[in-house]
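Bug report

Summary: structure tokens for ABC transporter ATP-binding protein differ between web form and batch submission.
Environment: batch mode, default settings.
Steps: 1) Submit the sequence below via batch. 2) Compare with the web form result.

Sequence submitted:
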Amino acid sequence: MSTNADDSTPDASAAGPGTAGESRPVGAVERSGGAEVDRPYSDYLLVADDVVAGYVPEVNILTGCSLTLNEGEVVAVIGPNGAGKSTLIKTIFGLIPVRSGELALRGTSITGMAAHELVEHGVGYVPQSQNVFPSLTIEENLEMGAFLRPEIVRDRFDMVAGLFPLLGKRRKAKANSLSGGERQMVAMGRALMMEPRVLLLDEPTAGLSPVYQDEVFQRVQEINSIGVSIIMVEQNARRCLQIADRGYVLDQGHNAYTGTGTELLRDPNVIELYLGTLAGA
Ligand SMILES: Nc1ncnc2c1ncn2[C@@H]1O[C@H](COP(=O)(O)OP(=O)(O)OP(=O)(O)O)[C@@H](O)[C@H]1O
Ligand SMILES: [Mg+2]
């Protein structure tokens, strides 16, 4: 089981809700749950505020989890197996009901909104597994990504193939003939077909060779550089924090640590409790 970071945690308010932000010194990561959502929701691109959610009645997996995403950011979500990282992403994407707390996109509540509506509002999601249609070709997989707006398929396919040249070159290949890394490119490409402003990625490098892991991290940065804000769950925690503007460490369904990528990478508690055991690569 994972360590409960709260036991040794000073008062969360020590970092001060009002002082949270860019200028906190290295090492002064916030060890708090919901303290960070201290501005109006409209100040953020996306907010999850004190969210409680779960699968089975009366069993909460997320027990008051908060996260914010600003325009243009890459935000990392890391934590031990079973911490609730995928559950958080799925809850944001409307796949799991919110029991309490709020979700907001550009200041508008999206609590209770269904996944297909979120896609129309510019949110894309790449699940942790089973994220391509194996019997369809690359081209058909991408077309499925934009089935809500067939008129944009051609332009978006060209755009996605520009980002992932392999997808254009091998457009007629069936997804089940591709390697794990190639499939991941298809999954990310498909999520980009609807021109999302927010992309939710759940462990995009899991199970991939080092070469493909490099490629995924590179593509994530490219996707971000063309204006897509990204929330990325990763087992490869160090690597993810290196490219992230900010990160959240989840443990047992709630926030354990929050800070910039650099702050988290240098924080002795985070290193000892999480980075030592999480993908040292
Ligand atoms: N479909 C489900 N039904 C019931 N419980 C589930 C379901 N999916 C996940 N859980 C439980 O929710 C908890 C959090 O799981 P989740 O998949 O969110 O963790 P995670 O942080 O993404 O872990 P990992 O690093 O292994 O992907 C776990 O205890 C898990 O057993
Ligand atoms: Mg997961």
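Above is the batch result. After comparison, the two runs are identical; trailing whitespace caused the diff. The longest helix spans residues 210-225. Residues 1-28 have pLDDT under 50 and may be disordered.
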